[in-house]
Design a protein that fits this description.
By secondary structure, the chain is of the alpha/beta class. Helix content is about 50%, strand content about 15%. It folds into two domains: about 140 residues, Response regulator (Rossmann fold), CATH 3.40.50; about 55 residues, Arc Repressor Mutant, subunit A, CATH 1.10.10. Helix 1 links the parallel strand 1 and strand 2.
């Protein structure tokens, strides 16, 4: 039985490298490639896969938010996050969102294959270079620690915040999300109130710092 994989990364050269390795491993099959989290979600709404391999920083909908939606859509969805970030906060955010694996891009493509096999068997996987982060029941605590400061934002507000962080205007956001400009304005206002940030520059900095924006 083959393990069906969805690969999402906005860099073609990364996808090509991963496909080259994955296609040469017996029992693994890439059934879809996506360039952002939103495209991944659209696929998951129509079809299913065994493992989703997502870049942490993608335009429109990043890997963390895409993971959260995939798991909410179906708790059985298994997600591996790919990232250049090796800091504890990023790892915590990934597992808090529901990811089962976290692989550093610098580790090499073969490690992604190892992660896929482990996660497909229902186990967790973390790149050895950052495995020291698993201390004092880290995985059990992650669900309540990393997401605390984001919890007040709705799913739609997080989408809008990411697009704000990418520098899009209200009109551009309304077109991308198929919302009216007035609705986008309301979301922006709510975000400012919840985060107590009233300047555009502050929202953009926050979005980038917290991983909403890949910039």
């Amino acid at each position: 039985m083959r393990t069906r994989i969805v690969l999402a990364d906005d860099h073609p050269i990364v996808r090509e490298g991963l496909r080259y390795i994955i296609d040469r491993n017996k029992g693994l099959e890439i059934v879809h490639e996506a360039v952002n989290g939103r495209e991944t979600i659209r696929f998951a709404e129509r079809k299913s896969a065994d493992v989703y391999v997502l870049d942490i920083a993608m335009p429109e909908l990043n890997g963390i938010e895409a993971t959260r939606r995939l798991v909410k859509m179906n708790p059985q969805n298994k997600v591996i996050i790919l990232s250049f970030k090796d800091d504890r906060r990023s790892v915590e955010q990934a597992f808090a969102a529901g990811a089962k694996g976290y692989v550093l891009k610098e580790s090499g493509t073969q490690e992604v294959v190892n992660a896929i096999r482990e996660v497909d068997q229902g186990r967790f996987y973390l790149s050895p270079a950052i495995s020291n982060y698993i201390v004092d029941g880290f995985l059990e605590k992650a669900s309540t620690s990393a997401a605390a400061d984001r919890a007040s934002l709705t799913s739609r507000e997080k989408e809008v915040l990411q697009l704000i962080g990418e520098g899009h205007s209200d009109k551009q956001i309304s077109l991308r999300l198929n919302l009216s400009p007035s609705t986008v304005h309301v979301h922006r206002k709510n975000i400012r109130c919840k985060l107590d940030m009233h300047k555009q520059a502050d929202l953009i900095r926050y979005a980038i710092k917290e991983g909403f924006s890949p910039l």
